[in-house]
Amino acid sequence: MINQAVAIFQQEILRLKLTLWPADVLVRPELPPGVSYLRAAEGIRAGERAMEAALPELRALLSPG
What's the domain count of the chain? Predict the structure, then answer.
């Protein structure tokens, strides 16, 4: 129960931060249900896929002109 409360609190803090300081690029991997430290490899792969999908947008922001 405490873990859920902390997770909700963290999500709200993130939402407020993004409202105040919008990100140029926001990478949000689609994590499998129940991902945890014990299944970290799945989360890492999801992060890699999300970053690869965001690369064109990131490159466009970094390109001169």
Answer: 1
